[in-house]
UniProtKB/TrEMBL annotation:
Protein name, per record: DoxX family protein
Membrane topology value: Multi-pass membrane protein
Keywords: Membrane, Transmembrane, Transmembrane helix
Localization terms from the record: Membrane
Pfam families in the record: DoxX_2
Keyword Glycoprotein set for record: no
Membrane-spanning ranges: 33-53, 73-91, 98-116, 122-138
Cellular component aspect of the GO annotation: membrane
Superkingdom, taxonomy of origin: Bacteria
Record bears the keyword NAD: no
Length: 154
């Protein structure tokens, strides 16, 4: 007769009585770290590379918004939205909503690139939508917590 094999023990973060394979726990931890790293990279991109030139009225940003006919008010508004989204990507309860909002902003950027700017940089917003959609989906569990917090305020 063979001896019974020992069951796989629960991971430290798993609820009592839940059996989790150790490799799944390590893989999940790596996935969470990778997702968090992606969020930090996108937050840096939106905060520094995208919002900052608009908020300091860098000539390249100002020219683009003048060409659109949106002027400095449009430039500062888009810059503020991007900066707010960048910060919100780093706040756990806001991560999913921030990713959805930034993705919506990228849909608008794509439409503007195609309709007004000749489509030269139209791929950039489309490329950015992919990781934003991943973050929105992966962090969707925080949406219930956000709704609960909003209901407490109301």
């Amino acid at each position: 007769m063979s001896e019974p094999t020992a069951p796989v023990t629960a991971a430290p973060s798993a609820p009592a009585g839940v059996v989790v394979a150790e490799s799944a726990t390590a893989r999940g931890r790596r996935a969470r770290i990778a997702l968090r790293g992606l969020q930090v990279l996108l937050a840096l991109f939106y905060g520094i590379a995208s919002a900052l030139p608009k908020l300091i009225a860098h000539p390249s940003a100002a020219e683009s918004f003048e060409e659109l006919g949106w002027g400095s008010a449009g430039m500062y508004t888009i810059g503020a939205l991007e900066l707010a989204g960048a910060v919100a990507l780093l706040i756990p309860v806001l991560q999913s909503v921030a990713a959805m909002a930034l993705a919506a902003l990228m849909v608008g950027a794509f439409v503007v690139q195609i309709a007004v700017m000749g489509g030269q940089y139209a791929a950039t917003p489309l490329i950015l939508i992919v990781p934003l959609a991943l973050i929105a989906w992966a962090r969707r569990g925080h949406n219930a917590e956000l709704l609960r917090l909003l209901r407490l305020q109301g």
